[in-house]
Design the sequence.
């Protein structure tokens, strides 16, 4: 059964630092992996979607990588800003999916001014 | 562009009452789904639909019903509310049923007393 883990559960860094958020999954047979951002009391916003055939995706200061063989994805945030403070979640669509996503519990990121 | 709209945003019910959470999207998405989010547990899929007239169960369907009479609407019905159904509920949709980017509503916070 596919499981998704995000470590650490919380992270606090000073403004301006580059940082990496981690997402691990137990079964390498996946269709894709998505990173989402959730602000307090709000819904989720899709940040990046990586298909199984891709190694990385970039959007502005965000870069997500995917290594299926090791069951890992990382979300790299360059030059962090206080506005980046949010909870970041990753979700995997398994290869045998009946349209379900398997979710990590998220990493709560705080960027200190 | 409204995207995914959920109502109500907040609701308090007594045990045994029934209610319907509404979800509508204006993006002509085929795939729609309902998740619940509980602290420390990540998101769990309740029900999903791959098109009008087609619905299926997710990971935690018990106590909930859905229908999909139109492409735009996907209501979630709580048949007889229980305290265990206290949660934040999210509706999400995507253009394709396979590998599409997922768009979320802002959530409905339900408390069952």
Sequence:
């Amino acid at each position: 059964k596919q499981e998704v883990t995000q470590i650490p559960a919380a992270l606090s860094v000073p403004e301006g630092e580059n940082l990496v958020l981690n997402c691990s999954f137990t079964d390498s047979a996946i269709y894709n992996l998505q990173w989402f951002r959730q602000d307090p009391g709000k819904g989720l916003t899709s940040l990046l979607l990586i298909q199984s055939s891709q190694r990385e995706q970039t959007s502005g200061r965000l870069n997500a990588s995917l290594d299926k063989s090791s069951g890992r994805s990382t979300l790299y945030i360059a030059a962090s800003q206080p506005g980046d403070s949010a909870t970041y979640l990753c979700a995997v669509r398994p290869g045998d999916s009946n349209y379900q996503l398997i979710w990590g519990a998220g990493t709560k990121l705080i960027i200190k001014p | 562009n409204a995207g995914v709209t959920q109502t109500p945003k907040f609701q308090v019910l007594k045990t045994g009452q029934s209610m319907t959470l509404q979800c509508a999207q204006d993006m002509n998405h085929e795939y729609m789904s309902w998740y619940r989010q509980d602290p420390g547990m990540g998101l769990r899929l309740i029900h999903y639909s791959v098109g009008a007239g087609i619905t299926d169960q997710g990971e935690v369907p018990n106590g909930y019903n859905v229908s999909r009479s139109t492409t735009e609407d996907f209501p979630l019905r709580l048949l007889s509310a229980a305290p265990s159904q206290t949660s934040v509920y999210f509706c999400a949709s995507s253009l394709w049923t396979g590998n599409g980017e997922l768009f979320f509503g802002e959530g409905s916070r339900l408390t069952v007393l």
Observations:
- The mean pLDDT of chain B is 92.
